[in-house]
Give the backbone structure.
Amino acid sequence: MLALSIQNPWAWAILYCGKDIENRSWSTRVRGSVLIHVGKKFDVGGIRDIGYICGKTPPRDLPTGGIVGVVDIVGCVNKSDSQWFFGEWGFVLSNARPLPFFPCRGSLGFFDVNYPGVQEILKNHDANAQQPQQSSAAALAV
């Protein structure tokens, strides 16, 4: 499956803060689900920026050097009203979901990763997301 390296805490913001654009200096025609890889470098200055934009502070002990999630790339734009857009190009993101950490090396651009069992994990996640959620009050009334 294709993966894209994204520095933490920006990868964390995609998974837990609704970051809907990944800024790049290059465009892409890639669409569909892509694994989120975090490299070994950590953008400490990003902690303040993310806190300002979404009101949450990323943890400082985030994992590095592996896959942490998956997101769908649904477009690529050179303009956007998203508060997360500040790049030359922005990959438009949707449906971000965390995955169990899987250590692996990263690479520039998109790269292939053999994450054993990822299709089954995603299938189970999608099935659970499609099931209607009962409120606790409705569950107690049954």
Observations:
- Residues 135-142 have pLDDT under 50 and may be disordered.
- The longest helix spans residues 118-130.
